[in-house]
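Chain X:
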Amino acid sequence: MNNNCNVKFINLNNGYGHAMLTTEEIFEGEIPRVKETITLSKDVKKKLLEVIPKEKAPEPFRDNEGHVVSNDGIIVRGDIIVAGTIPSPDIEMVIPDMHVRGRVCVLDKESILDSIRNEKEGHPFLIGFIDIIVLDNIKFRVALRMFDNLVFDWVPIVKVPNPIYQLENEQAQREAIEEVTSFRDIFFLSWYGIQIALLNPVLEARFHRETVPYEDKKRTNNKKKAPKRYVKKITLGDISDITFAKEKGSHQIKEPFWWVSGHWRNQKIKNGHKRIFIQGYWKGILREVAEEKNQEPRERVIEFDEE
């Protein structure tokens, strides 16, 4: 985002303190077309939230300037983004009963590195954004930022349409932004839950994909409808037989064996902690069966470099 753009702050009543509004682009690069779509029912949203590994804080986590970094004392870390293990980043999520859709876009590696270089040490840097479209024509873009300790920044920076930016009625403007931030939370946490679920082969097997026409409301410059195109429609199958631990720990999955994807862990050492990467492994009471049959784990390669 252009640091010289005109912005204004608005106080919120939803726990985030304030939001920064702008009419300028948060990211000006090329955005690819939507490739996958999923409908978020109440049941799906609830289950996806259970999948996410969260850290509980005694009070809302704040940055050095006192701004809230996570809502309701929940800390979500961006290890999957840094490690490059996002299995399906380009998913558009639809909440039909609210007539709203959202899309989380994660920037490419070079753009994220540029964002890190342009920010002061200790400040959150841009790693992507969330597009939120209400009633098929009102579009908001919310910055997705992260600190160097991999904690997501929850303070809203929102690109808003001109009519909302210029609203003189502050109460109406506040209510609109508070609704946007609630959608931002739903879409981001649901998207994150999808990524975590797809990294686990037991859960990944419950996702089904089919090719369907994409309902694109856009028109070409000559006011004709855009050419018809297709996307993969994602459906989450029955997961009623899967339960999750309420506290931090392993998922309680009722399966004979499953593959635990490689993951990061903080290991205690003499002078503090160091981050180590745990290679993937089979787990479950019948894990020996998987090892004997040489079942192929669905693990993605993680490459590291000096940066």
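Chain Y:
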Amino acid sequence: MQPMTSVLAAPRRFSSLKQPPAWPLVGSLPYFDPPRVHLVFEQWALRYGTPFRVNLGRRQMLVIDDPVEIGRILRARPGTFRRVRPVESIFRELGIAGLFSSGAVLDLQQEFMRYTVDVTAGLAFGVDINTIEGGDDAIQRHLDQVFPSVNRRMSALFPWWRYLKLPADRQLERDLAVVRRAIDGFIEAARQRMAADRGLQEHPGNLIEALLAARDTPESGFSDADVSGNVFTALLAGEDTTANTLAWLTCFLADEPQAQQAAQAEADAVLGSRDVIEDFTRIDDLAYTAAATREAMRLKPVAPLLSHESNEAVTVCGIELRARTPVATLMRPAGLNPELFPEPLAFRPQRWLGDSGSNERESTARRVLMPFGGGPRFCPGRYLALLEIQMVTSMLMKNFHIERVGSEPVRERNALSMLPEGFRARLRRRREAAARI
């Protein structure tokens, strides 16, 4: 692959960039607050301008927010760029390697977590664990601990867990053990299905069967660890990002009565007398719901900060980088550009209801948002995630009125996937809500 070049004519030295305050030996790491690290980087971008560099102690990181350059980096994976090595090593250590009742006050983000675990287990593994209806939610509860733990370790000054196990590290080991036992059960059940039906070896019915078929192919180079690691990855990836996007969308709809009413009217029209959508061909008719989803992802991208590492000498944003230089890409600033998005901080789903690409500004606005990444490592679960989001949202809008509970502001918390901390809501049957007005 040819080295990436910048839109700028003359490359600049990396050392010439501005950088935030740094301490001896540890650099800017003491300023990192793992649950809010994306906000720290966004504030530094406003203060120092982009690109800027961050001192990580023994290494320097480039930080950019240019959507054109971010798109080039995403398309250049895994050749010119890769996942940063600390993320890969931490996941390998953990064994994760691979590609409602009316009137109740609910933590909707947790309810959406249960839902997405159920969908992933059902479609990818052929298992109905039914956590959302009060079944065994052990998998979901223990998965919840993995991403925050990885996020803390990524921001650590040194890898203490390799030398000293703190209580949180021992708890993480227990959480991982529970999930691994569940995954072993999924794999064993799939093997039994494949033994009973030899046709599944040639025509697998779901992801786990396809992984096992690959494992059993001679000279595939695919191991049992690869199967287990990819199953684990599918559970993690299928849970957090979709659930958190749903939670942010629901939060916006609760705060914007007109938007909620528009979504309810659309759900009434599309679902008719049904409580849930049953004809998948009608998904495309949920245009307002799709627009509201896109707007929520613009304002609250669940992956606001992505980290990469150069495999070779490369030029990014006009900056000459050596091989193995970490590069952080800020995904939200482009979506807040007032030239592309008038009233950029306002939740306005109608901005996405025009014809796609009808003018240059609208076409550019669609390109700068990359909630599912891009290039060869484009999220393979994109269409399933959007389908889940639209199905759940239409069901909620058809049946319920959503009311925020409490006056405390909702805060962003980043645990590799950004979630709304403190968002609690009350779901009232719409007929009951109408009677209260």
